[in-house]
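> forwarded from #structure-qc
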């Protein structure tokens, strides 16, 4: 019998959002608008070169990202989705006996990737659906190597403001790597949720994580990146699986960066729908926190699974976190309407 790492045997696998043929999918926080127009045409041109390896250094993508963020390319590391970059960051700093701290519940991959990287995952309970930064700072010890701040937080949709985030980072020892995960940045209100790149661009122990999977509508192609000090980025790059960002993914990301106006327009549509759906749900008697992301959090506790099953019976797939709540991705207006009809019927049935 092969000797498998005991920590892996205990580990729960990642649970992806469900897909049921014909159903409306509001379970994976994807963009509902399809590929950006310039991306679709660029991908069609590229198929002839796919028998070759991609550019391992992703040089043109790094240049495009560097121009976007006003930094040198040496400040950026890319990966196959920001999930891979999360893993790379953990592999950069973790070893046996080290810990990574994060609020919980948060992005499901954090504990999995921490364990795979050989560290221990420290789950710090949320307070009122928000990351409890005081409790997270208190959980930092000599063993801590990395802290995730998920801003806005998946799945609870809440965000940390500039003053508490700055105070939190100031409190942490400089040997701890702070990863501000901004996967949903484009949906957040800039007057309430800081851009961590602007805030911490000069700190050697802060990196900011971004993805092309959400507002850039490229979840299927797998591109994400982090921005930070060149000293740490040089190490993070060593942990990438060689050639993990395919040629199609690199070119699609470069094309998507050129479509900023459309990205902003689509994010605006999603935010408008988010506010409408939030208002309708509250009118129906649901309690939910204000969202800064492209999804809503319904803290339905013990009813979470039954509510999700009820919505599936009505043709809408949501994401249940049994015993805690349900995450509802904001889709197209007609998809959201189908969800609201199901949510209204649930309340009527409960009377
Ligand atoms: C907070 C957060 N970070 C990172 C990711 C990873 O996204 P991807 O690997 O598609 O870039 C997700 C995906 O849902 C997420 O919710």
């Amino acid at each position: 019998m092969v000797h498998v790492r005991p920590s892996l045997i205990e580990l729960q696998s990642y649970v992806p959002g469900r897909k049921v043929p014909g159903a409306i999918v509001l379970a994976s926080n994807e963009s509902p608008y399809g590929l950006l127009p310039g991306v679709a045409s660029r991908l069609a041109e590229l198929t002839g070169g796919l028998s070759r390896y991609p550019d391992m250094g992703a040089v043109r993508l790094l240049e495009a990202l560097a121009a976007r963020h006003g930094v040198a390319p040496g400040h950026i590391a890319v990966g196959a989705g920001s999930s891979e970059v999360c893993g790379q960051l953990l592999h950069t700093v973790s070893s046996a006996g080290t810990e990574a701290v994060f609020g919980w519940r948060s992005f499901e991959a954090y504990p999995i990737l921490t364990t795979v990287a050989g560290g221990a995952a420290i789950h710090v309970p949320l307070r009122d659906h928000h990351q409890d930064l005081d409790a997270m700072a208190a959980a930092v010890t000599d063993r801590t190597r990395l802290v995730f701040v998920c801003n806005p937080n998946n799945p609870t949709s809440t965000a940390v403001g500039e003053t508490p985030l700055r105070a939190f980072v100031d409190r942490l020892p400089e040997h701890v790597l702070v990863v501000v995960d901004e996967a949903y940045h484009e949906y957040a209100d800039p007057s309430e949720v800081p851009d961590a790149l602007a805030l911490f661009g000069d700190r050697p122990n802060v990196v900011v994580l971004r993805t092309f999977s959400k507002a850039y509508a490229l979840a299927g192609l797998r591109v994400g990146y982090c921005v930070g000090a060149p000293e740490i980025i040089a190490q993070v790059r060593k942990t990438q699986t060689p050639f993990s960002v395919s040629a199609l993914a690199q070119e699609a990301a470069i094309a998507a960066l050129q479509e900023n106006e459309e990205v902003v327009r689509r994010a605006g549509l999603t935010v408008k729908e988010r506010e409408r759906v939030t208002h309708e749900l509250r009118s129906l008697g649901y309690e939910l926190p204000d969202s800064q992301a492209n999804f809503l959090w319904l803290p339905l506790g013990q009813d979470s699974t039954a509510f999700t099953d009820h919505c599936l019976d009505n043709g809408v797939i949501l994401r249940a976190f049994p015993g805690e709540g349900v995450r509802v991705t904001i889709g197209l207006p007609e998809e959201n309407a189908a969800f609201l009809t199901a949510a209204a019927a649930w309340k009527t049935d409960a009377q």
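QC bot note: The chain has two domains: 6-33+261-350, 37-257. The chain has a mean pLDDT of 96.
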